[in-house]
Amino acid sequence: MVDLEEKQKYWREQLPKFEAKYWLPDHFSFLNFDMEQGNYVVKEGLDSIYEDDATEIYHRVNTGWAMWKKCTSSMKAEINELKAKLEKLEKSKSGIVLTCSQLLEAFQFGAPDGESDADQMATEMAIEWWNDGHSGAGYYCYYSDYPEEGAIFLGEEAAQGEGHERIN
Q: Of 116, 93, 95, 115, which is closest to residue 104 (Cα–Cα)?
């Protein structure tokens, strides 16, 4: 159960937003917000000629306030759910699916002398999907320590992106 202090904190946060979006701002001249009850009440001392109008406004504004609270709590729950999904995605390992041919291209780019050169075999290569690479969208390989040296497109340029998917 949410205590009154937490509710009041929420109301103080949401009231200015609700009142700014409410379609008939003049209605608030007839009402005050009661921080103990959590709703609008008719102002005391209004001229009796406004009594019926004030009662109608009271119901209209409090209905809007109830819908606002329902919407924001629903959106808050949805946002929390999306944040949890995003956190799960960020924690999960991501990978890519490449053909052996593409892997061989990356290997030959990073270690052109093959397994006989230990230094080349220790070279770290990066493989990323680029939408706007020099040969179009597709996977590109580059030296992770020297990305400015350029990159190669992995695979046939005519088959860009076909059969290649990112795994998250």
A: 115
**Sequence-ordered list of residues with C-beta below 8 angstroms from that of 153, at least 6 positions apart, any chain:** 133, 134, 135, 136, 138, 139, 140, 160
Q: Which of 132, 134, 131 is nearest to 153 (CA)?
A: 134
DSSP 73: H
Phi, psi of 63 (to 5 degrees): -65, -45
Q: What residues have CB less than 8 Å from 14, skipping those under 6 apart?
A: 68, 69, 72
List helix spans (H) across 23-116. Answer: 51-91, 100-110
pLDDT band at residue 95, thresholds of 50, 70 and 90?
confident
Contact by Cβ (8 Å): 133, 153: yes
The per-residue pLDDT for range 107-130, each reduced to its tens digit, is 999 999 989 999 999 999 999 889
Output the pTM of the full model. 0.51
The CB density around residue 1, as the number of other CB atoms within 10 Å, is 3
Contacts of 73 (CB under 8 A, 6+ apart): none
- For residue 37, count CB atoms less than 10 angstroms from its CB and return exposed for 0-12, middle for 13-18, buried for 19 or more: exposed
